[in-house]
Amino acid sequence: MEVQHLLSGFCSTPLxxxxxxxxxxxxxxPCASFAQSQKWVxxxxxxxxxxxxxxxxxxxxxSNTERSGAIASDDLRNGIRRKKLAVFVSGGGSNFRSIHExxxxxxxxxxxxxxxxxxxxxGGADYARDKGLPVVLFPKTKKEPDxxxxxxxxxxxxxxxxxFVLLAGYLQLIPVELIQAYPRSIVNIHPSLLPAxxxxxxxxxxxxxxxxxxxxxxTGPTIHFVDEHYDTGRILAxxxxxxxxxxxxxxLAARVLREEHRLYxxxxxxxxxxxxxxxxxxxxxxxxxxxPNEYS
Length: 296
Ligand code: GRF
Prior knowledge:
CATH topology: Rossmann fold
Order of helices and strands: HEEEEEEEEHEHEHEHEHEEEEHEE
Bound molecules: 5-O-phosphono-beta-D-ribofuranosylamine
């Protein structure tokens, strides 16, 4: 079927073909209906769709035979609705992949419904397109002039009924509009034991080099809720990883990353099962699945 037929309501909007033969289309306004066939996702304009094209680009994709995809059903597990997840990625996306696999395997009671990236050519975006997931480019920059604005991003996430935003190697500050729209619902993973080795400029291999140079004997991933600053939101979970005497930054990064994949899936599982509770002093803690009286 021609993709143009499925993008009804946006005929005036030119489609752009990227080198990987995926399709971009303008997003609808917030009251437009979101429809998905088995092969394509389409955005249909509602009658009050104005001339104003709300935003720029969503990548559209090919058939998706897996469960996760962009459709999330309302199916209940112990009375809890299956959650809808947005993942933000700037790089290779190995955390994104492991989260996606856990959704597909049914470990996580949720589905990834959109991938947001500031680099449309990154590995994470390629993987999303390959799996038939919509890809949104954010923010709009000189390098990526087709990115969307913060207000439009919030509109898209609302339209897709996103419950949680998961940052997985997304190297941009999250705009205040998104933080206000999703209170206590945005988490990030950082590759050190925060508050050590965090903050602006502390990302990627720089973190692991700094850990080794400091002489610290332990490091490991931290998952925290996101506020307006880099790496300062409330800590939700951590995992300790030893720093070995002869470690290179690359070896240490690989050891931490393996733990990141496990920890992020565990934490998202808890989020989606509504096992994250907030202590009176504002610290989030996780209720154990096996023993509801136990928290970590
Ligand atoms: C991870 O180390 C994560 O802690 C940090 O960025 C990296 C992303 O790696 N925020 P990947 O793209 O998931 O492989």
